[in-house]
């Protein structure tokens, strides 16, 4: 077991005497691993923005605290004249890593960005370059800055036109007390890529997936230009949909017409049963039609604010997302639903 011979008290004593932030982080990660049940090396490292490989290396090094002066263990030693740059072998390894998914080197992201590549160099080789230099290395490695297209199901344009024509007539069936709301969902990962680096000549696309660690949000835009956003602690399901509909009624009144997509958690039997004896009207968009939903514009604006920033943890990401959403200018609902 790693750190078996080093007590938590010993780690705290050493921590009280260190001044370098990097050394403090190593000790705090080790204390987290030692003192919290069911926390793995990978979990402890992730709390401080590092990989499991980093934890394994440093926790093994901290084992020497019982036999060596703590200054020799926790601080980085001068590297005997070695320049603070990659060796030829390390440079080649870096290039090979860039031509694979970041997940292949235990980085929780779908594609490479400059902050991610810089983090990899620090963790893997203990080499720290400025972002401008990392960007140059990525260009020399045969990568370029591109937009990745999300892989959505494509809807039939005729189906979209037919839906829009039908929706233009639906307000006539609702009395003046109804509020029309468009609803959508998003997941925001710790490093949201607006642009990313891909090998030259490749036409990149990224899967729309919830695989990476993320925050989850449900959002709504009203026909009067108001917005409502609901953070979700769990994956989207019929219960979260019902919770959202209940919250929308509390905010906008009992009579609401809700426009939403065909996700299973929106169309579930439990959702249909919930609205059955209420004045809630559900109106489902054609499959694969995000461009018809104005709430998607809120996510686009959110992505512009959060894009290509690397957040330390999900709490920091959630705070940044909710702050950005609070200040955005909502889109006009009817320019999307019935142009």
From TrEMBL:
SUPFAM superfamilies: Homeodomain-like (SSF46689), Ribonuclease H-like (SSF53098)
Winged helix-turn helix domain sequence ranges: 110-165
Domain spans labelled Tc1-like transposase DDE: 191-318
Alphabetized InterPro entries for the sequence: Homeodomain-like_sf (IPR009057), RNaseH-like_sf (IPR012337), RNaseH_sf (IPR036397), Tc1-like_DDE_dom (IPR038717), Transpos_IS630-like (IPR047655), Winged_HTH_dom (IPR025959)
Domain of life: Archaea
GO molecular function: nucleic acid binding
Listed NCBIfam families: transpos_IS630
Protein name in UniProt: IS630 family transposase
């Amino acid at each position: 077991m790693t750190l078996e011979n080093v007590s938590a008290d010993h780690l705290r004593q050493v921590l009280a005497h260190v001044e370098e932030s990097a050394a403090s982080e190593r000790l705090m990660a080790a204390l987290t691993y030692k003192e919290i049940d069911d926390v793995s090396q990978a979990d402890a490292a992730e709390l401080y923005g590092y990989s499991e490989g980093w934890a394994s290396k440093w926790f093994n090094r901290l084992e020497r605290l019982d036999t060596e002066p703590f200054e020799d263990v926790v601080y980085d030693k001068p590297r005997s004249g070695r320049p603070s740059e990659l060796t030829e072998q390390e440079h080649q390894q870096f290039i090979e890593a860039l031509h694979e998914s970041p997940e292949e080197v235990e980085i929780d992201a779908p594609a490479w960005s400059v902050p991610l590549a810089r983090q990899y160099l620090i963790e893997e080789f203990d080499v720290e370059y400025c972002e401008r230099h990392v960007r140059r290395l990525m260009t020399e490695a045969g990568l370029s800055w591109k937009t990745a297209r999300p892989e959505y199901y494509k809807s039939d344009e005729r189906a979209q036109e037919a839906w829009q024509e039908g929706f233009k007539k639906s307000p006539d069936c609702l009395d003046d007390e109804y509020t029309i709301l468009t609803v959508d969902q998003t997941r925001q990962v710790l490093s949201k890529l607006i642009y990313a680096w891909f090998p030259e000549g490749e036409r990149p696309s990224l899967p729309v997936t919830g695989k990476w660690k993320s925050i989850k949000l449900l959002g709504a835009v009203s026909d009067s230009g108001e917005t409502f956003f609901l953070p979700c602690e769990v994956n989207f399901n019929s219960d979260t949909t019902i919770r959202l509909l209940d919250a929308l009624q509390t905010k906008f009144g009992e009579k609401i017409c809700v426009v939403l997509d065909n996700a299973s958690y929106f169309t579930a039997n439990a959702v249909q049963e919930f609205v059955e004896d209420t004045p809630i009207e559900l109106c489902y968009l054609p499959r694969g039609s995000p461009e018809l939903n104005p709430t998607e514009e809120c996510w686009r604006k959110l992505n512009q604010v959060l894009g290509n920033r690397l957040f330390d943890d999900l709490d920091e990401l959630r705070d940044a997302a909710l702050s950005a959403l609070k200040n955005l200018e909502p889109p006009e609902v009817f320019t999307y639903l019935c142009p």
